[in-house]
Predict the 3D structure of the following.
Amino acid sequence: MQLFGGNLVAAGDDADMGNVAQWDGSAWTIMGSGLPHPVRALAIYNGQLVASEAGHVHMWDGTAGEDLGTGFLGVVYALAVYTRDLYAAGNIVAIAGGGASIQRLAKWNGSTWEQVLTGLNGYVTGMLGTADGLVLAGPFTSDGGGTLVLPSWTVYDGSQFLEKPSVAYGVTTVCTYPDGGFILGSSSGVLVRPGTETVIDMGSIN
């Protein structure tokens, strides 16, 4: 979900609501003309709403919009903004239509998508932009070059992927924590405080 234009925007798999809808305080309505396929992620970038749908990323002001690039081979599971740049991640492997290789993580440069460093060796299911970096989660174990140990989560600080402590059972999601830091979601919640390598197990989720 996202707040956009004073309304709450929700997205998912609901063809009757165009897969993306807004709540104006009294009713749900389709955002613009909606999107044809289930929406996996939402973000706010340059004051506009961005949505991922299959291998495409769309940006629009609520009534009209445009595709960002020609799309990807694969599915975009996560969108995030970090240092004013837009990132897309998932099980993407290349730009659609015979374009460049993209190993799971891409940055929009204003005209096209480009791979971040060597990418990752497994797909990304969660992503969050923070003051300390872009937090990435998913069933990956290394960077695309196979030189780093990345145990299902890492932080991209704008120049490198940072190796982090391992978390039991793997990490699939990431979200903000009210008192600072972020929570890594696996079969148990794990709190990570900013500026520290400490991970705090919040207990099993059954």
Remarks:
- The chain has a mean pLDDT of 87.
- The two ends are 24 Å apart (CA to CA).
- The CA atoms of residues 12 and 195 lie 34 Å apart.
